[in-house]
Structure formats: structure tokens, C-alpha cells
Amino acid sequence: MTTPHPTHLRIHQLAGLKPGPKLLVTGAVHGNETAGVAGIERVLKQFDAGELTLLCGTLTMIPIVNPLAHRLQRREGERNLNRNLRPAPIPQDFEDRIANQLCPWLAHADVLLDLHSFNNPGPAFAMMGPRDNDSDLEPFRHEKAEAALAACVGTGRIVEGWLSTYALGLQRRAARQGDGSRQASLVQDPHYGVGTTEYMRSQGGYCITLECGQHVDPQGPEVAYKAILRTLTLLGMIAPGAVELADPNRPIEVLQLYEVIDREHADDQFAREWASFDEVSEGQLIGTRHDGKPVHAPSGGRIVFPNNKAQPGQEWFYLARPSDRKLKP
105-108: long-range contacts (C-beta < 8 A, 24 or more apart)? Predict the structure, then answer.
């Protein structure tokens, strides 16, 4: 039986009567990542009940960005919405149609809080963008504001370096022969590393991805809910006191992604069951290719987003190491 495609996005907006920041909060960009959905719905109920008051600015919330994937209870509808995100003049799939609605909202906002979760066990963490730079890859001018946003949501770990690391992986993909399918052409597209936050930065805003924990972690919705309120407090859009603020003096581990390894064959196997941020040492065996070739860690650090269900040609795992980035001036 074919699942009927949703025909609309549900978008909620509160427009303050005083000027201020334009904040966009998104959930379920990947359909099976539901912590953000629950967190957004809880905040909406509090505004409706008068328990929260918007002091200024504009708050826009999209609890379910990919309703087809959400209806199917899986990561993707017809493809990964959070890759190759840009307006599509001639839409080829459901995610292209979503992108045509989502991208204008991203472009209009000043700040984005994008709520996600992940497959393996592990604590919540935030992902932020590059430092201020004039490069062709991801020019940026909001390093301090984005670092403050990443620090305010309360996680003990923050990761940087997504797009630069992804670009290295795309160079290797470009050297491999695809099968001529749309999926193969997408994963080899130089734009494929661009998702919600990367598109947001390209339009002049700043943002973070908050990974609220494992998909089924019962604390995930609470992490999302508190992050929304802490972001609103940081931006001066609600009065302090709605939520306990994160301890500004807590230790925060900052990691730099430096490598992404694709799964090349369905029979590529991990050497053990990995969880995000498990430590790896230089030369440690991470997995084995289908032909028996070992895959070793090139240096010490952490493994991130290990995915034993990755499709051939897509990301199998990432590697990260300590960053020298300072969150405070």
C-alpha cells in the first residue's frame, strides 16, 4: 500500500508587538527524530495557555519539517532532506517540494535552532558552524553569537567542522563511478553537504543543530523543550525565569570533525558496536570492508555518528578530535 503524500506544512508563528530577533525552531527534519516535535508542541501549549509571553521579535516553529518521513516513521521520505537543501525550480521528489517551502523561512529568519536526535546511545550535544572567515566554502560573520547560542542550550559537548569535513568526503565520492540513479547523482553533488544550518548561514543568519540524544531517549523531549526556552531567554524574547539556565561555568568539550568515511558495500562491517563519541586510538581497527580490507583510525580521537545501517555510498562514520576553539572571548 502506498502512503499518501502530505500536502502541506504546519507552521506556527508568534509575532511580537515590539521589534526583535526572528527565531525559527524546527523539528523532524528527519522523520524519526521526534524529540524536537514534542519540545515544540509543549512550548506552543504554554504560549496558548498564557504561561509564556513573547516580549519582542518573531518566533516561528515548524514541529514536523518532513511530514512524509514522519508519517512513515523513518529518517527520509524519498531522500535525505538535510542534504542538498536549496530551492528546486523543477522539483524531482517530495523533499524538493518541502525545500521550496522551507528555504524562504530559513532566509527570512535571523537565528535557527534545529532539533535532531541520533541512532546510537549517547548524551545530547550541539553542532555549530565555522569561525569567522571569507572562504568560498562557508563564509561567516557570526562566530561569537553562534558560540553563545551553542553554549546556552546546556550540553556538555559541542562539535564543529561539519561542512569542511563533508567536502573532503565529497571529493572522494566524485572519484567513484555512480550507478546513474538520482540518489547516486545527489550524493556526488558538491552541494550535498548543505542542510538546514548550512543554508541558513548562506543566507546571512546563524544557527545550531541540537542533537537531543538517542531517538528513543525519554529525556530527549525535555532537552529540546529546555533548549527552546533557553534560546528565547538568551535572545531576550521571553523573560528570565521560565527555565533554569545552563551553568555558564560547566566544562564543555569542543570537538572538531576531521574525517568522514563512507560505506562502500552492504557487507562493510564494524569491528564492534560503536556509540557516538567512543574513544579511538591511532591505528585502531574500526571496521572491515567487504573484501577484507581493514579500516583503521588515522589518529586518536572520537568516532561520531557510526551508522551500521548506512547505504553504500553514504556516510558510515565520522571522526573527531579536540578543538582549540574558545567559546568565550
Answer: 105/11, 105/24, 105/60, 105/62, 106/24, 106/196, 106/199, 106/200, 106/203, 106/205, 107/203, 108/22
Mean of the per-residue pLDDT values of the chain: 92
- What is the torsion angle, in degrees rounded to the nearest 10, for the CA atoms of residue 131, residue 135, residue 137 and residue 140? 40
Identify the domain containing residue 279 by its residue range.
258-322
Alpha helices in 195-310 (DSSP H): 196-202, 220-234
Q: What ranges in the chain are assigned the alpha helix state H? A: 35-48, 67-72, 94-108, 143-152, 162-174, 182-187, 196-202, 220-234
Asked whether 207 and 146 are in contact (CB, 8 A), the reply is yes
pTM of the model: 0.92
3-class secondary structure per residue, 38-107? HHHHHHHHHHHCCCCCCCCCEEEEECCCCHHHHHHCCCCCCCCCCCCCCCCCCCCCHHHHHHHHHHHHHH
Tally of domains in the chain: 2
| Amino acid residing at 148 | A
Please give the pLDDT value at position 189. Answer: 58
**Backbone dihedral angles phi then psi of residue 249, each to the nearest 5 degrees:** -100, 5
The size of the chain, in residues, is 329
Contact 113, 212 (CB under 8 A): no
Edge-to-edge strands of the sheet including 294-296?
269-270, 285-288, 294-296
Residue 314 to residues 21, 80, 236, 263, 318: CA-CA distances in angstroms? 37, 11, 40, 6, 11
Instruction: Give the CATH number for residue 304.
Output: 2.40.50.100
- pLDDT less than 50: residues of the chain: none
Residue 176's pLDDT is 60
Question: Among 212, 236, 251, which residue terminates a domain?
Answer: 251
